[in-house]
Amino acid sequence: MIPIALLLLAAQPDAMAHPAPALGCTAEHAAMGHCTMPKAEPPPPPPPPPCSPEHAAMGHCAMPAPPPPPGCPPEHAAMGHCTPGEPTTAPPPSPPVGNAPPPPAPRVEAADAIFGADAMAPVRARLYAEHGGGGISRIMLDQAEVRVGSGETTYSWDGEARFGGDIDKLVIKSEGEGAFGGAFDRGEGQLLWSRAIGPYFDLQTGLRQDVGPGPSPTYAVVGVEGLAPYWFDVEAALFLSDKGDVTVRVEGSYDQRITQRLILQPSAELNVALQDVREQGIGAGLSSAELGLRLRYEIAREFAPYLGYVWEGKIGRSAQLARAVGDDPSRSSVVAGVRFWF
Questions:
Q1: Could you give the 3-state DSSP secondary structure of residue 79?
Q2: Residue 169 is part of which domain span?
Q3: What is a single molecular function from GO for this protein (predicted)?
Q4: pLDDT digits (tens, 9 = 90+) for 46-96
């Protein structure tokens, strides 16, 4: 037993003098002297920061070479931004675009192949005339009536005739009145050239001649006539007499259909003078007016008898001139008449 103990004691100093290496050395154990920390590997240097144009201009760094441009247009090459590559062969120019008018389309008339061109020419000319190229004529007596009122019975008419086409036509207008068993009161006739200035209106110009027991002046006429919105028939004309007198007339009417044949027609007429015309009993300003209401029955479209009521009177200066010579400036009448056209 003694030799074994001696051997253990002899081996103990070597074990204490040479301790076994530690499996791991932490910072706390190294600080207390229990172990020695291994030397750490130095960290790799950080990558250099990118080089901005400002730093490159101050010599702090060098800018990386730019990638080669995909192409060098002439504008960039002129400014020194790039170098153009080798010129390539340009494609041949395109032929010039023609500007000559197209040839006319061939006119093929199927009927010519059956009846012949000579036989179809007059037929085709008549067809064109009947569909917009023909002449049109109409004579209408819009009012042919007897007026009863104020102890006097009078007659009155208002009508027109038209000859021409859709665009240009000749228009003749006539109107007047008188007393049964008495003198003819007044009358007028107009000869006008009418030209369409739109789908619904015509421009009219021509002459007007008055007839009657008093002065019979001649007028130059300029006016318009047509169909206003909501189906109002309107007419406006300016008259310049051979003595320099200027008057204006405005008329309007509306056909209110009660049935397909029974029609109620209100109408109005206003006359304005720019100066006094004493020999005709006309004063400056709004000189006269006429308001009417007529109920007609169209036995046929071309023939319609009617009954109605009419008020007519002089206004303003014209009324004063009428009273000065003892005339009544206004009059109301019951009317009966006929309207026809052909």
A1: coil
A2: 136-341
A3: copper ion binding
A4: 666 677 777 777 777 777 766 655 667 777 777 877 776 665 566 778 778
